[in-house]
Structure of AMOP domain protein:
Amino acid sequence: MLTGGQTIDLHMFFPFYGGLYNYTTISVNGYLAFATVLDQGPTINVGPEATDWPRQQDPAMIAPYLCKQQIPQTGNPALRAGIYYRLILRQSLFGRESGSNMNLGGTMQQSSFFGQTASQACPGTPESYARCDSQSDYFLDEMMRWLQEGVAGASMFRADAALVVTWHNTASAIAGRSDIDAGQSATYQVIWLTDQPGRLSYVILNYDRLGFDAQDFRANSRSGRCRALFNGGNHTGIVEVDPTQAYKNTPKVLAQRSGVPHVVRGRYMFRVDDVVRPAGCSNKTGGTCKSFGINPILIYPNIVNMLGEMTVDVNALCLDRSQTYVLMIEEREIAPCNVLNAAIARCNLPKIYDWGTKTVYFQPQSRGANDDKAFVGYIYFVPPTLDPQRLDIGNIYEWYKNPMPSYLMPITWYPRNFTNPELFNNLNQMGTRISDDALYGVQLGLYVIGYREYKDDEIKKFRPEHRTLARLATYTNRNSYEYRWRPQEEVINLNQVQQWYLTDWERWNTLYTYRVGYLKLAPIRPNDINGTELLSGLVSAPISLHWLWSPEDNRFGQTTFSQQERDQRAEFVARKSKEMCHDWFDEDGALFNFIRDTETNTSCPCVETQARLDLGRFMPHPRCSQTFRDITCTSIIGSKNCYMSAQNIYGSYAGDGNTFDNMDTTRFMTHYGQVCCYDESGYLMQTPYQPVIKTQKEYFYNPGYPLRAYEFGTPPYMGQFEVPGLSVFHNDYMPYFLCCKFADFRCQLFYWRRPSSACQEYQPSATGQVTGAGIFNTIDNDKFVFNEPGVYNFLYIPKTVRTPEVRIQVRMERYPNRKVDFGLLGRYISQAELVQPTNATVITGITLEATGTDRVHVVARKDTRRFRYRTDIIVGNILRYFDTIRLQRFKGVLIYVNNVERGQPEIYVVLEEAHIGVRIRESYALDIDRLPMYQESMGMLDIQLAVPPQYGVRPDGDKTRETEQRQRYDLPRISGLMRPFPEQTSASIMQGLTLNDVNSETIRQQIINNYRIIGSGESGSEQNVAGTMSQGLPSDNMFTTSKDEDKKFDVFPEANLRSGPIYKMASMYDSKQISSGKYRFDPQTGMDINQKLSNCRGLQEDASLNLQPFQSAVNLQYGLQRCPDDASSIITNCGDSVPCLYNYALLQSKVLAFEEQDAWNSFMAERMDAIRKYNSCGAINIEYPEYMMKTPALSSGYLQGDVARFECYQTHWVKGDNEYKCGIVVDYNNPNLYRFEWNKGSQPWCRSRIKENYFKWITVIFSVVGIILVCL
């Protein structure tokens, strides 16, 4: 029995609302808390709206029935009351399950030392409430079955621990015996489940009886109202259990209704590991849309292959089997749905042909006037190359080798992804539950789907086609208990085809028009003759289909082949590939010469440093770069890093100019893409040199090449060259394998159609960054330190004819004093003093958008919330996750995450049409796991920004002729924190950051007046007068406002994540309320920092003796309040590095100071390298590469000053000019006209020495004969 509350140890970490907890406090007042709860008074207030945090506590809690309650001590003798709890742990956590290598359990000696038998006690958990035995395993398995019956996607969850707390017959706090005898008591329960890694967490709430609404007399509810909620704590967010009118009227309705009405009344289920999401079905009625209630519908999986023909499970409204339900997909067909039970519907998705988020609406198909409106949610559709749910068929690039390394290829899937169609359709008649194993026993077929873009004579267009070519094998889906989480592993025999769906003529002819395809695993449809209507299933990534080819006398009639037959097959593939390569060469040559657009508008950067800093136009290749740590790259293997265009290449008007001027026309999106690969020295690899350098078949010199079909697709993603992932394989990647890998001596044909870029048209971007405590290095080379809390226009570009409007804002907050000891709470410091502000401001959030794009927010998470995720990425007011898919495309925005370090600390956002890119890092993307002194990251953002040259910003910061050029070319005026003085001359590129640039009052006032959003700073900022340069700049706060199309999601819990500060201070630190100004923000100048460090070093090193008592106390107080730790080491370690000194002195962190110093120095060096002008002559096109070598082989051969020498092997003589140099050619009649080119010469080639000698002898013989004839 508990009174006020009891804290217990959970013996492992349970995730809840972004935090990790290994303890909880169980209270008689109906909650599990994770912090101190202020429960004096009739009402227990929690949440952002009801508490003044941090002056008052806002504890994180799971509250099934939050109000003042008591455990009755008197009353009906038969009434048993109390609070009971138990911690259930799975035996496998301690090596005690069957088959364990420890074999603990019943063989242990019995002991009652800890209050229970040793066979019942869990190792390391001496408390009697912890249990891990066969009964605990059974209980956890039952809880998983409960979840499967009510939660979409819960079949993938394995519960390893559970906390069960039951409030039995509790009464309101001021209830008397008459109330208790009248049955006004409450019995309810919390079951909190998690897995062993602490990544997923679910809560089940059970309500047996609720006899009171509040703690007031006779339940008249005038005070102490009861609530059922989940509170994230510290104003993170709050979620009500039942956001309905009936619940508002009387909370007792929770015991009458249910989220799983087909199972039991009074039961509700939630996923709670991050932002709390309700599961089960909703009782929300009254014609209101769920999206305007509290949460979106729960859909699993919510990341779906765009090829469709898959199923998703939906939690929405409570379902009726007699009705038909549909899932309406924005701008696409509807998906029919089947009712699994009252809480879950399963919907069959059609082909979507889209990449990005689609809003979906779940509703009955036939609705009357009184029916509910549609429930709203979203599904993110991805191409098959990025689908995290795709069919696993082993190393994907083994499928692109000839001959295949093995004709027994692996295939893996999770059996619970498939259900028996016959049992599934009769689910309501048979009474089968989702958790029953029999439902998953089904025969699966493995199908080969061919893809091509062919001419459709009916619509007079070329269009994509997906056709079922064959069924390779049949598998039995294993439905036993151990395969609930274990994947099923089988083998594909590529030497055998069970059934062809092509005629003999089509197998000899049409088959070879499908250059690429994919595999699909799906339940077998009875009487399936032509394979045109396959059931929903899993599809693989695109693969080559050459393993289906064979000579006419060998048609997969057997299961094994001899080595001779294998060789014949490989020779046939090589011969057929040569024919297909020639066909592709002719076909591609008939199309528009897209190289004009790729080289003119997206020429490759000349060196890798430029590509790395050009965030808006180029991104690391998702498969061939060190950023994504993906080594499965064979098409362009040999490069150190590859980059690709971050958006579709934008073309421009290229007419004769007689009618229209190119400057007055908008750019337009094409379906082309660019790929640039760099060697170990950081120089571009060139396709013309590949045949000369290549010495063996699998040689590692494979340069990048432009793409006719952009890999990420082109809106509307339906036509030729537009399908993401598939069009590029059909038009670009597969021709590379046909010409360069499968066929002999045809790679040069491919590179003639796909020549690499030589950076002749490339112009670098203007790049800037802000790091640490407001240390700026702007895009036009201004360097300063600026500290002032508020929301600022980081970059603003007005809309012009050629460019969209761009809006970027950042939020700067006062960084908390990390020297505050939280252990002193309640003894020496109050709740309000836990978060004490310093005089340093850091960036905690950034938001950006452009014309026609989604609005993106990236914010650092609050303290104690940065365990799993260090940042929140919110797109269109919806929280997005990047665990399984690191690259996501939204409306006009591309976002990708370098998740090498845990917690998505490094995020890249690209505004596609604007070509502006941003890199956001949390705490310098440090690996916090390797820093033993830090439990979580530091909670600050640093930002790097790249602006392309089309906006007229010079990368070296020169603004001498900017006004003239802006008027002449109608360029937009770019301004903001990253370009605060667009009308002033910039500093020298070589000038560093000095102490005079630290919070200079001249700079500060201009920035505050011109770029701070009015009212976003400290109290009094709403009265600031706008500066002259702020005219035309946005005045609305993008963190607190929403676009019209996103306002329906404003009520979601993530709204608090973006709108509120992460370091909220108590009102006592508000300078407006403190007349003395003790806590007023005081920007520290360079002189202040220098003086403070000198004083503190003096106190540290000078041992003052015989001080008066008061003087000694003053010295001690000054040192404690104003001095950083070890001031002398700061001066010694940082030297004259201003960024290091400033961060070290104000942020109190040696790690942050050194990281800031490294970030500043590396950026300065990289920018100097990137803005350098590289002059390119292009690569030399070698037409006859046979027996020729390049010296040196891997050196740069395209930049000014480069020398390229070509030689022949010892069996051949070199002919033509074999040595070239790239240099400048000046028209001396007009010195302003110049170009860069190679010296003139004839094409080098190699002639056999035998043939050369033969020609010499022939020449001698004919010469002698000629002389003789002349003499005669």
About this structure: The first helix runs from residue 134 to 150. The chain is about 20% helix and 25% strand. The first strand starts at residue 5 and ends at 16. Residues 769 and 944 are 4 Å apart (CA to CA).
